[in-house]
Prior knowledge:
Strand content of chain A: under 5%
Radius of gyration of chain A: 22 Å
Structural class of chain B: mainly alpha
CATH architecture of one domain in chain A: Up-down Bundle
Distance between the termini of chain B: 58 Å
Oligomer: heterodimer
Helix content of chain B: over 70%
CATH class of chain B: Mainly Alpha
CATH topology of chain B: Helix Hairpins
Mean pLDDT of chain B: 88
Largest sheet of chain B: none
Helix content of chain A: over 70%
Structural class of chain A: mainly alpha
Order of helices and strands of chain B: HHH
CATH architecture of chain B: Orthogonal Bundle
Radius of gyration of chain B: 17 Å
Distance between the termini of chain A: 67 Å
Number of strands of chain B: 0
CATH superfamily of one domain in chain A: NADH-ubiquinone/plastoquinone oxidoreductase chain 6, subunit NuoJ
Low-confidence stretches of chain B: none
Amino acid sequence: MNLTVLLFYVMAFITIGSALYVAYSKHLVRSIFMFFITLFGLAGLYVFAMADFVAITQIVIYVGGILVLILFAFMLSGRETLDRLKDTNAKFIGLKNWPSLLLAVLFFVVLVNVILKGMAGGLQWVTDAAFINNIVKPTDTTTGNLGVNLMTRYLLPFEAISILLMMVLVGAAHLSRKEGTE
Amino acid sequence: MITLTHFMLISAVLFCIGLYMVISKSNAIQVLIGIELILNAAILNLVAFGRYDKLNNNGQTFAIFAIVLAAATTAVALAIILNVYRRYKTIEPDSVNQLKD
């Protein structure tokens, strides 16, 4: 087992462990900050999949943008949500959580079965890509190629998503305005 | 050797944790975090398969699009959560039970 694989397992452990704590914790602030750790671990996993630009994008957008938004929403939505959360802290896993836990575990079993039987490494196009050397190596830099592709081959999705972002901007500003000012 | 199966197993774990959070949590912000976990599981799969497309960068491009979509989702969802809090003084999804004013 070389160092890369070891680091991969460490990163996967950090990601999954912090995600489990996010799900387990009843304390909202703790779960938000552990979600921070999950996102960093995921960015590390993207680096292991040879996607360094996506990893940086993940850190900039998720950690810099989304997490700050979530913290803002938490702070603006008052203290009494925290107090109510503390009341239910007594039970370990409450009775009402059992169905959702059962559903998640059963779904996980199905997913693992599909993944292990699907043999993604033996897919036709994956072996073809490895055969014609169309695979990203650790020494390659993909960012320039990604930018060129974004402006040529994927220009239509790019425009669609820019229109969607404008609609979201207008919609979010409209939704969060103060009422009754007119 | 890190294979595709490793990435897909991690993504399956994250997806199921997100599913559990979406169903069981009694706080709209925690439900939102669960949705973000599900989206991240999908992005991890996109990135892992995108390694096998060096010329066109299919997976990585759509991973970036998915990240942007997640940001847009969060912005609108948080605006809705703030509105719900302003009207009901709580953000528990079970107690929001009226469509009219």
